[in-house]
From TrEMBL:
Single GO BP term: L-histidine biosynthetic process
Gene Ontology CC, one term: cytoplasm
Official protein name in the record: Phosphoribosyl-AMP cyclohydrolase
Protein source organism: Thalassospira profundimaris
Function of the protein: Catalyzes the hydrolysis of the adenine ring of phosphoribosyl-AMP.
Record-linked HAMAP family: HisI
Assembly and binders: Homodimer.
Catalytic activity line of the entry: 1-(5-phospho-beta-D-ribosyl)-ATP + H2O = 1-(5-phospho-beta-D-ribosyl)-5'-AMP + diphosphate + H(+); 1-(5-phospho-beta-D-ribosyl)-5'-AMP + H2O = 1-(5-phospho-beta-D-ribosyl)-5-[(5-phospho-beta-D-ribosylamino)methylideneamino]imidazole-4-carboxamide
UniProt enzyme class: hydrolase
Subcellular location field: Cytoplasm
Cofactor dependence: Mg(2+); Zn(2+)
Annotated binding of Mg(2+), by residue: D81, D83, D85
Major place of residence: cytoplasm
Cleavable signal peptide: none
């Protein structure tokens, strides 16, 4: 690990579980794709490799985006907010970002007091994860 990347990780404010929220945004369109969590190791791996890595709370381990689906996120820019407690990763998303097969994870909307699904899957979950 480079000293510069270690210094960046040292500045970030992780919560009591050692995690920090990370928002993924498509670098050229501004589309917000997803939100996930990173721990220090995920931050360092992302900065070192240029491939976005998160921490999976359900699996209790590092999750390299696209490792099972092939829907990889290439890091374009790594940013953090003024409080150093939220990360924004601007990415080049290969394929869909959501595990449901949608382009992004924000497909529910509250409109006129109703929950509305505003986008449909672009690829089936079975196809996405090779469960044919």
């Amino acid at each position: 690990m480079t000293a510069a990347n270690q210094q960046i990780a040292d500045k970030l404010k992780f919560n009591e579980n050692g995690l920090i929220p990370a928002i993924a945004q498509q670098h050229d369109s501004g589309e917000v794709l997803m939100m996930a969590w990173m721990n220090r190791d995920a931050v360092l791996e992302t900065l070192e490799t240029g491939r976005v890595c998160y921490f999976s709370r359900s699996r209790g381990k590092l999750w390299r985006k696209g490792e099972s689906s092939g829907q990889v996120q290439k890091l374009v820019d790594f940013r953090y907010d003024c409080d150093q407690d939220t990360i924004l990763v601007q990415v080049d998303q290969l394929g869909v970002a959501c595990h449901t097969g949608r382009r992004n994870c924000f497909y529910f909307a509250a409109r006129d007091g109703q929950e509305v699904v505003i986008s449909e899957p672009e690829v089936s979950v079975d196809e996405l994860y090779g469960k044919k």
